[in-house]
Amino acid sequence: MKRLSVLITLLLGLSAAAYAQQPTSPEEVEKKLMEYIDSEVERLTSTLGLEYWQEFYADSTLVHDYHAMQDEMRALQESKVMNSELYTAVQDKWNEAIYRSFEKFLNKEQWKKYQKSGALREKKARDKRKEKIENIRIKP
């Protein structure tokens, strides 16, 4: 899941660079995102022993969810939102969607390996952040 953190940093950095009108084109951002997804699918395949059909689901999940995350991040930036917690909430939302999707197509042994590779630690961190936000909303 360290790679996931790297991707998030990359997305934020590239989005910030685009916002600052640096020469990072949308094509370059898309290329880097797709390279990351390809490398992540390769890593998951070698680590978890994914079958061909599982590679397809992993790739489809990552392509859809990372693009959706990127679109939401871009919308926040275009709205000039400065609250970092909102960006984190968007990341958590899509990372949770990825986690839940992977749970559906990985077998029990693969799921355990996936969780041990850092996914469970990231899940607990997301849950802790979510609980903290909910506690803040409940208090008057």
Key phrases:
140 residues; mainly alpha; 86% helix; single chain
Outline the fold blueprint.
Elements: H1 2-19, H2 26-48, H3 52-78, H4 84-105, H5 108-138
Helix pairs in contact: 1-2, 1-3, 2-3, 3-4, 4-5
What does this structure look like?
It is built from five helices and no strands. It is an all-alpha fold and 140 residues long. The longest helix has 31 residues, at 108-138. The mean pLDDT is 86.
Overview in brief:
This protein has 5 helices and no strands.
Q: What would the principal axes of the Cα set say about the shape?
A: flat
Largest sheet: none
Question: First CA to last CA: what distance?
Answer: 36 Å
| Low-confidence segments | none
